[in-house]
Amino acid sequence: MDNPIIELKGLTKCYGTLKAVDDLNLSIQKGEIFGLLGPNGAGKTTTILMMLGLTEPTSGSVNVCGYNATTNPISVKRKVGYMPDSLGFYDNMTALENLIYIGELNGIPSSAVRGKAIEMLRLVGLKQDDLNKKTSEYSRGMKQRLGLADVLIKQPDVIILDEPTLGIDPAGVKDFLELIRTLSRKQKLTVLLSSHHLHQVQQVCDRVGIFVGGKLLVEGNLDTLSKNVFNNKSYEVQVTVQDDPNMVRKHHAEILTLESVQEVLLKDQTIDVVCSRDVTPDIVRFFVAKGFNIAGVQKKQYGLDDVYQKYFENNLTERNQQ
Amino acid sequence: MKNQVTSFEIGLLEHESHNSPFWIMVRKEIGGHIRSWRFIILLILIGLTFWGAMYVSMSNIKAVVADIYDPDQMFLYLKLLTTTEGTLPPFHVFLNFLGPLLGISLGFDAINSEQQSGTLTRIMAQPVYRDNLLLSKFVSALILISILFFALVFLMIGYGIVLTGVLIELEEILRILSFTIICIMYIGFWLGLSILLSIRFRQAATSALTAIGIWLFLTVFYQIIVNMIVRALVPSSHVLTQNEVRHYNEILLSFLRLAPSQLYTDATNTLLMPSIRSLSPITMEEMAGAIPTPLSFLESLLIVWPQITGLIASTVTCFALSYYLFMRREIRS
Predict the structure, then answer these.
(1) Domain ranges in chain A with CATH number 3.40.50.300
(2) Nearest C-alpha of chain A: how many angstroms from B110?
(3) Which of B145, B229, B231 is nearest to B188 (CA)?
(4) Which CATH number among 2.60.40.10, 3.90.190.20, 3.40.50.2300, 3.30.70.100 corresponds to the domain A234-301?
(5) For B32, which of A45, A92, A109 is closest by C-beta distance?
(6) What global pTM score does this model have?
(7) What residue ranges do the domains of chain B occupy?
(8) Does any CB of chain B come closer than 8 Å to the CB of residue A134?
């Protein structure tokens, strides 16, 4: 466990004055499936490109499979398969030809490369008659599968998938992620995948890092992450009344004096009460005592999606304040 | 023991087929070019031009060779390449226009189309050096062009032998081969330029238009502009001595020679017409004692050596600039 297969230390990348990646420290162990989560423009792709030595970091170091990715990119690229977010193939070639080309570039002898390519295409679930189709006729989902075959043909130790679920339909996403998971378990692959869909990633990842504005905000496996969420997170009770919103506004300050209440948000006839403890009965009792007609009370449950959302919101407001 | 033998054989096989990524890329590029419509159309165009030029010169060859006042009359095959009756320019003049088109069309989308379609990132994620991609684009197109021109020229020679029964001389072979090599270098320059533009501009259409713009400027407007400036600056020829006229003419020519098409014209004319003995103006005194005889191949080559150097230098400059731009470039689309 002391010897991580991917190790980023103090990684920083600036584009002019913009800090795309800001002092990033991350280590990923062998055989892990790590999910890098973040909104568009968080610096995920930049980080990945630096891991492959395709972009030079402004400062900091990247070690992948024991090689420094900046000074020794060829050795890293021999061990790492990368699937970019905007997947492109040579449209005038068939899927098989595309794959054979990549196989040959990776030094697979030409006598073996054809068989190997066919094997890979089977593995990712492409049908026999699709193999000799031009890639221009491929659907997005099929291209994604071909992209995976493309990554696997070099028999990598690590695969990096940038937004692998982008543009595939929900059923396809499920299949695809399942495929990645089984492959990873079977071949003991380390997988790093980036996404902005938490609920997709949580199906497959062992560990998740939330990455916003070039910084890694939280990192951990899903259990600790969700525990964190429920510990830090306060409760939220939403009360809907049938009375005049102005009436409610009068009592705004009074609600705040209730025990454990941290924040009260008014919006027309609904009142959101944020509190550090579950005090739903107290709140209801308060409204009843004041003579309001309560139409509904709802206690909000937090899922991971909300956390993720929350992190993004926080970040956005911080940025706006700056 | 048997196992050992098989493993040894496999090892040999692997070594043999274990091509370097560079040649694999070149092979793929050539395959892509050959199957593309673009190349087929250009092939037809060049083929037609060659056939047309040959047809015209074949039908006039008898009269030309019989002309005893022409010092080059003995060079049947050179005459085949240069003779014309005025309806169609000879092949090497035609190529002055078509060559750039060929070079530009093979290179204008070399890098930007890969970037647009997203294949660039994928290829760069493979264990290959970045410059190999650039070099493979250049080398593959150059190999194609070389094969095309050598095939055309050898066809011409073979056809000539069959038709006239006159055997070709070594001198002519050398001249025709060096002519072919200069053609390839000339196209190589335009190829290098268009690859450079394909790195600079993200849209293939922009880079194609820019390349065609540069081509038009160098072949048409550049000469007009240089002539205009010279006419404005140089005093009228009445007040100048002969030496001064010659001096100004030489300045004019050296400015014109900044354009690769001029270098190409100079070089091919000298090589294909052995009686050309100088590319700069000659005074009457110098001409006085000269007997109009053809030069030897080496002497002609010596005359055009600066032109050849110039062509190579401009190609290398384009390529060096391409390297500079491409090696540190962000590759994400």
Answers:
(1) 6-229
(2) 13
(3) B145
(4) 3.30.70.100
(5) A92
(6) 0.81
(7) 21-327
(8) no
